[in-house]
Design goal:
Protein name: TRAP transporter small permease protein
Strand order of the largest sheet: 1-2
Largest sheet: 2 strands, antiparallel
Distance between the termini: 25 Å
Number of strands: 2
Domain Tripartite ATP-independent periplasmic transporters DctQ component: 194-325
Family: Belongs to the TRAP transporter small permease family.
Subcellular location: Cell inner membrane; Cell membrane
Region (Disordered): 1-21
Number of domains: 2
Radius of gyration: 23 Å
Helix content: 55-70%
Length: 344
């Protein structure tokens, strides 16, 4: 017997095909939603600390404050963690979903996030490429005027006034679509690479922004699709022993792996990447960092953010995967066949 065999109220694991009580799964549901609540509070505090110059929670624990605002703000930021955790408690307390229903709900939230990110890299890539092309050929002042053309040559202008509105638009578009678009993004990567080849060898024309566009889209394809690949059991698994395990044993492996290897890895990425103003994710975004090529795309800072999107989307999906795995351990109906990727 393991700790996962019994639940909060002490009821035993249900046999496969039986009807598991939503009440008995509350502890595991609560664990999953608390992880997401803490992650959300961390991201919000990261924005408040490094973009709005609030002091952060470090002064409460003897660390250095960011900026010069009163320490009262530190306590308010710390209270955000408590508020989100209480929201998780309230949701689980008032909602009688099963583990699998919560897993599906969390997966749907993640799918929306990834859809929005897909449209963001698509639209930002196309618009930024158009701006770079017009700048290179000298057409931009004729199109938008000299003053705006000069501003568009500065990453500190193009980032907040061009990229950010397009990203906001992408989240709106994602709310009305149901496709993740990875197939199309892969096709666009190939098309962009083909443009480079044709331009170089047929027209003797090559510009830095085309290579930047390929890297921008390919990085998004690789990092954004990881959570979807996890959902579809598409990652390479060394299953010398796993393939022959029972559904319950597979659930134990998946649950432990989700926590020990998955959620912990995503936590490390977020803490190391966003733990300070000069950290690897925060620093490029705060400065709207660009490549050294003068007429390349101004999206290098967004590519640093891709790592954050990867960690967040994988964290969300690992929580959903954990809940589904616990449901397998408990023998709840409707489980996924991990060999054929179908629902039982």
């Amino acid at each position: 017997m393991t700790a996962l065999d019994n639940v909060q109220d002490g009821s035993p694991v249900m046999n496969s095909g039986g009807k598991a009580s939503p009440e008995s799964a509350r502890f595991f549901r609560l664990c999953g939603w608390i992880v997401l609540a803490i992650m959300t509070a961390f991201l919000l505090n990261n924005y408040l600390t490094y973009w709005q110059d609030l002091p952060g929670i470090a002064p409460i624990f003897g660390g250095a404050a960011n900026g010069s605002m009163p320490i009262l703000w530190s306590w308010l930021q710390l209270a955000l963690y408590a508020a989100f955790v209480l929201l998780a408690f309230g949701y689980v307390r008032t909602n009688g979903n099963t583990l699998r229903e919560d897993s599906v709900r969390i997966t749907n939230i993640n799918a929306y996030l990834i859809r929005a990110c897909f449209f963001a890299v698509l639209i930002v890539g196309l618009v930024d490429s158009a701006i770079s092309f017009l700048r290179i050929e000298g057409f931009l002042p004729d199109v938008v005027g000299q003053a705006l053309a000069d501003d568009l040559g500065k990453s500190q202008f193009r980032g907040p006034y061009v990229h950010m509105p397009l990203i906001a638009l992408s989240f709106v578009i994602a709310a009305f679509t149901r496709t993740l678009g990875f197939t199309w993004l892969a096709l666009l990567v190939v098309a962009a690479e083909l443009m480079i080849v044709i331009g170089r060898f047929v027209f003797s024309y090559e510009q830095a922004f085309l290579a930047d566009l390929v890297r921008f889209w390919y990085a998004a394809l690789f990092l954004f699709a990881s959570a979807y690949t996890l959902l579809e059991e598409g990652h390479v698994r060394v299953d010398i022993f796993y393939a022959g395990l029972s559904s319950r044993a597979k659930g134990i492996v998946n649950a432990v792996g989700s926590v020990v290897l998955g959620i912990s890895l995503c936590t490390v990425i977020l803490v190391i990447g966003m733990g300070g103003k000069q950290n690897i994710i925060n620093s490029p975004i705060l400065t709207y960092e660009t490549t050294q090529a003068g007429f390349g795309l101004y999206v290098k800072y967004l590519m640093a953010g891709f790592l954050g999107v990867f960690a967040v989307s994988m964290m969300i999906q690992f929580v959903a995967y954990f809940l589904d795995a616990v449901a397998d351990i408990r023998g709840e109906p409707g489980g996924r066949d991990h060999d054929s990727h179908t629902v039982q």
